Amino acid sequence: MKKEFRSISNMSATEDMTIEGYALKFDTFSEDLGGYIETIHKNALDETNLNDVVCLMNHDENLVLGRTKNETLQLTVDEIGLHFKCKLADTQNARDLYTLVKRGDVDQCSFGFFLDNKDYEMREENGVIVRHINKFLSLYDVSVVTYPAYQDTSVESRSIKEARQEVQNFKNESRKKKLNISIKLAHLK
């Protein structure tokens, strides 16, 4: 099980130091995440426990903005994805972030999650490897970020080397299947 992060744009701020937006959106495609792209099924959060999720700055556990268990962070799953609303505390970090969000300097979100290997599928579609996330094992944070994973893979906690190895393993398995089919077809002729 590997800790992973994904990001998305579209966040706003209100005058009472509340920020909100979509931490993830269903049935959309990510940017290249190290040899593959990714999409999240609309039911991926159906069985996910969201009772203790934290809102962070740049996935930094020292920069907590809100939390579901004390209701300073509200999460709502709708037809678009996972919407969040976070009432910020009166701290210097929160005031700074609020100002940056309000100005539009920081306007993207991310989420941290765990997957079980059985909760996603890798498929080649039109020459592109696509990872289909069907179910999250757990979601532990939504973050306001400067560089989101959907646009810049360097914010992902999973190393690029690991992602490339997974893609290479997938390609090797696909080649083996194609070779086996070719051999079987040759024997039929």
General description of the model:
- This protein has 189 residues and is α+β, with helices and mostly antiparallel strands.
- The protein has one domain.
- The chain is 22% helix and 39% strand.
- It contains 2 helices and 12 strands; from the N terminus they run E-E-E-E-E-E-E-E-H-E-E-E-E-H.
- It has helices at 92-103, 160-188; strands spanning 3-9, 11-14, 18-25, 37-40, 54-57, 60-67, 73-77, 81-87, 108-114, 120-125, 128-133, 138-145.
- Strands 1-9-12-5-6 form a 5-stranded mixed beta sheet, with helices on one face. The protein has a 4-stranded antiparallel beta sheet with strand order 2-3-8-7. Strands 4-11-10 form a 3-stranded mixed beta sheet, with no helix packed on it.
- The longest helix is centred in the last third of the chain and has 29 residues, at 160-188.
- It is elongated and about 75 Å long.
- The model is unreliable at 151-161 (pLDDT under 50).
- This is HK97 family phage prohead protease.
The number of helical runs is 2
Strand content: 35-45%
When the domains are counted, the total is 1
Provide the structure class: alpha+beta
β-strand number: 12
Alpha carbon gyration radius: 19 Å
Q: List low-confidence stretches.
A: 151-161
Helical content band? 10-25%
Helix/strand order, N-terminal first: EEEEEEEEHEEEEH
Distance between the termini: 45 Å
Task: Give the secondary structure arrangement, pairings included.
Layout: E1 3-9, E2 11-14, E3 18-25, E4 37-40, E5 54-57, E6 60-67, E7 73-77, E8 81-87, H1 92-103, E9 108-114, E10 120-125, E11 128-133, E12 138-145, H2 160-188
Parallel strand pairs: 4-11, 5-12
Antiparallel strand pairs: 1-9, 2-3, 3-8, 5-6, 7-8, 9-12, 10-11
InterPro entries: Peptidase_S78_dom, Prohead_protease
Protein name: HK97 family phage prohead protease
GO molecular function, one term: peptidase activity
